[in-house]
Amino acid sequence: MAGFRFQVQKEGSGSAGVTIAIGLFIAFGGILFGYDTGTIGGILGMDYWIKEFARDEDENGMKFIGSADKSLIVSILSVGTFFGALLSAQVADFFGRKHGLMISSVVFTIGVIFQTAATEIIILVVGRLIAGLGVGLLSAQVVRIRRYFQDHNISIRTGTHERQDTGSYRIPLSIQFVWALILFFGMMLLPETPRFLIKRNRFDDAAKSLSTLRRLPPDHPEIIAELNEIKANHEYEMSIGQTSYKELLSNQSGFLRKRLLTGVGIQVFQQLSGANFIFYYGTTFFQSAGIKNSFVVSLITNCVNVVSTLPGLWLVDNWGRRNLLLFGAAGMFICQFVVAIVGTVSQSQAAHNTLVAFVCIYIFFFASSWGYVDSIQTL
């Protein structure tokens, strides 16, 4: 069962240090999505940003961002990720994992340029759509540990929300350049995956790549054995032939169909859990609830999200996936029920404190269960 565990290799089996370092670096790509998730909610609540981008006015002539515009700005990223995810496997197979990640970073960077330069909502929306396409392309190529990185925007967003110039929103948006550039130029230093090289019949290059990863000479018996295993698996997959989504969902597919639908279902229910409402609209929600220092409260909830991921690494091995998901769902249900009651009964300071507390508890249940298990459920 997958979980939070390290296993030291036997002596003479090479070093796992390089492999771990490369894995952690590639996983850095998860920050591209996580940073946006944590940033956009704060930007939507910035006074200067609202004044610059608002297209609606109330009866007193005050500008505000309508719910339709807010929903479009937030959700359009997911539209891009949907199409990017559909293309990610083809891009990775054609260009290779290394160059596929580099291309994804370029696409994401183009989206960031549009967002940073935007002076109207339509330009911002186009930028988020393109950035979403880049994130989607990354999704099947990067280890999905985005929940760890979701909070790296906090100090920047909290430090710029009181600015009354374009820097209030352009600084946190432009920071995304850093993550994309680090990933792009870093990938230039990493080897291509042995599997892709074998698919291209570049066996010598595959041996060199695996040698770099395992810190063993190319002619080492373990390198040769692993290369032969990769080659045998590839030949077996080619012998099976191609298939279609229709065949995958047919009755004949059996276990594969169940596994696919389980993975899709877990992802769907994770989205329906409501956690993204806090991550995307948390600042706006706390402001509308009459809570002071809404940016600070969002900072607290994001910190809870990051820290609460860690128990899930241990619980998934000791409780199992199913029990952990049930535990998380029950906890989230109770917290949502309490928040709903508090939000409609009283507007006192005690009610505000209770609301914030149960939102944080809700995030704990989410991050330690559904926020983590959805990525490994079908493994």
From TrEMBL:
The keyword Transmembrane applies. InterPro entries: MFS_dom, MFS_sugar_transport-like, MFS_Sugar_Transporters, MFS_trans_sf, Sugar/inositol_transpt, Sugar_transporter_CS. Residues 22-379 form the Major facilitator superfamily (MFS) profile domain. Gene3D superfamilies: MFS general substrate transporter like domains (1.20.1250.20). It is found in: Membrane. It is a multi-pass membrane protein. Keywords: Membrane, Sugar transport, Transmembrane, Transmembrane helix, Transport. The chain crosses the membrane at residues 12-35, 72-95, 171-190, 294-316, 323-343, 355-373. GO terms for cellular component: membrane. One of its GO terms (molecular function) is carbohydrate:proton symporter activity. PANTHER family: HEXOSE TRANSPORTER, PLASTIDIC GLUCOSE TRANSPORTER 4. Belongs to the major facilitator superfamily. Sugar transporter (TC 2.A.1.1) family. This is High-affinity glucose transporter rgt2. It comes from Orbilia oligospora. The gene is RGT2_1.
